[in-house]
Amino acid sequence: MAKKSKPTTNTEEQAQDQPIVEAEAPALAPEDLVSKVSINKYDPFQLKSSIDDEICHLLESEKGFKEDNRYTDLKILVAFIACVLGAVSHFYPIPFPQNKYLLMACVAGYAICASLYYLIERNLEGDHFYISSSHTIPSLKDFPRISLSSELDTSSKPGEASYTLCLSGQSSKQATRGFKVEKKVAVTEFVDGKGYVHRYRVREYFEECVKQVINQSK
């Protein structure tokens, strides 16, 4: 005996008639498009730091980067020792001039600490605003330590300032293998006339830099 077919409803018939449409990629959230707070577009330091901060956010939130804080920790240690020497020189319970040798030692120690701090900041850190200790980019697994520095050129005509990002690294397995990529772009590509940073443009710019790094490191 033949089975009776189940009658279809109007809703099912409409669903069958509609074409199958592929799911679209999720749109970016509003906070990922433009920054919530505007900056002073006439302040070069604020312009540079806002773009640098956005790149740091991309590194850690999307690329799995972890920052190498060894130089920061070393500077904190040196500054702490300098503070201790300053406190000892002022509050050690020996009256002057009996404590003159102690004062001389504290002044000499403070000068050494100040010199070490300067050397760390100038020679080791340099102009880098981010130094990684590891990341999750498979194509750059031999380059866990990647340094990023930037420069804002305001010497051109007003309104034509440019931002240059530099990425450099050296292979942990082969000392002679390394890379250095620089990419220059107008600041107006990132910041609009009202001082808001277009975060999606910074993301596109950084992705282009990463592609160049991967190609050069092969």
UniProtKB/TrEMBL annotation:
Membrane spanning residue stretches: 76-95, 101-120
Domain of life: Eukaryota
One record GO biological process: signal peptide processing
UniProt KW keywords: Endoplasmic reticulum, Membrane, Transmembrane, Transmembrane helix
Localization terms from the record: Endoplasmic reticulum membrane
PANTHER family, per database record: MICROSOMAL SIGNAL PEPTIDASE 25 KDA SUBUNIT, SIGNAL PEPTIDASE COMPLEX SUBUNIT 2
Higher taxonomy: Eukaryota, Sar, Alveolata, Ciliophora, Intramacronucleata
Organism: Halteria grandinella
Keyword Endoplasmic reticulum in record: yes
Main location: endoplasmic reticulum
Annotated Polar residues bias: 7-17
Chain's role: Component of the signal peptidase complex (SPC) which catalyzes the cleavage of N-terminal signal sequences from nascent proteins as they are translocated into the lumen of the endoplasmic reticulum. Enhances the enzymatic activity of SPC and facilitates the interactions between different components of the translocation site.
GO cellular component labels: signal peptidase complex
Protein name: Signal peptidase complex subunit 2
One Pfam family recorded for the sequence: SPC25
Region: Disordered, residue numbers: 1-23
Molecular functions (GO terms): peptidase activity
Membrane topology: Multi-pass membrane protein
Family assignment from sequence similarity: Belongs to the SPCS2 family.
